[in-house]
Amino acid sequence: MKKTLIAAALGLLIGATANAEMTLKDAAEAKLVAAFGPDLKVREVAQLAKGQVLEVVLIDGSVMHMTPDLSYFTYRDELYELTARGAKSVTESRQEPMRAASLAAVPDRDTVVFPAKGEEKAMINIFTDIDCGYCQKLHTEIPRLNELGIKVRYLAYPRSGIKDRETGQLTSSYEKINYVWCQADRGTAMTDMKTTQRALNITGQRLSKASSPDQASTLEGEYRALQSQMTAMLASSKDCHSPIAVQYELGQSVGVTGTPAIITEQGSLIPGYMPADDLAKRLGVL
Which stretches are annotated as coiled coil (predicted)? Predict the structure, then answer.
């Protein structure tokens, strides 16, 4: 009889604990689903640090940590607040004013400027690279951005860095973007360099998929002509004490990890490519 009572008591205790854990799991999942949508699923929740922190394991195995009231969580080194409108990055909110101040300190004369047409309604800074395919694609959107009243300032961010770690020589990425900064008409130089590099990329891809010897021969001729054009541009480049290295370091300090990286005048970081009209909506211009 005594053993039966003990077993029953243990069963109730285990059941209560399981229900508490299930309730906590369900509550965490409900909070996250409200912010991110129904595809987000929680596998398990564990209380850490004497209940002061919740470890939330998602169904894909990724881990986040939440406050016990489920109002804040950290994910990939960023702190977020869960609000009625979704997740808001507290980390980003703190970085924005510092980012804005750092970029405001860069004068137009050190950038490549594409001014707004008519009334200036917004301004963006874009950390860019010549070899980057999406940077080339975004550059084709510049006329539309300017037409919508958005001023664009380019800053340099050669993705391969300034010098090759093994050889100590200047990287190709640096040499290409340095060419732009060392021209009297930087805007035209930026367009010429990105257009040529984009044509090289496309022609190279077509050449690799050529369906006949004749097509391959034609494409090879086009590719060599584009290479000669690029070589001629780089050969004409001179050391003009450009701010490329300084801007590369600035990009790293404000959170740029790839290109293109768009930063608004208020300091908000928008990583990657975005069509002009979508970007204008993001800026409140459309």
Answer: none
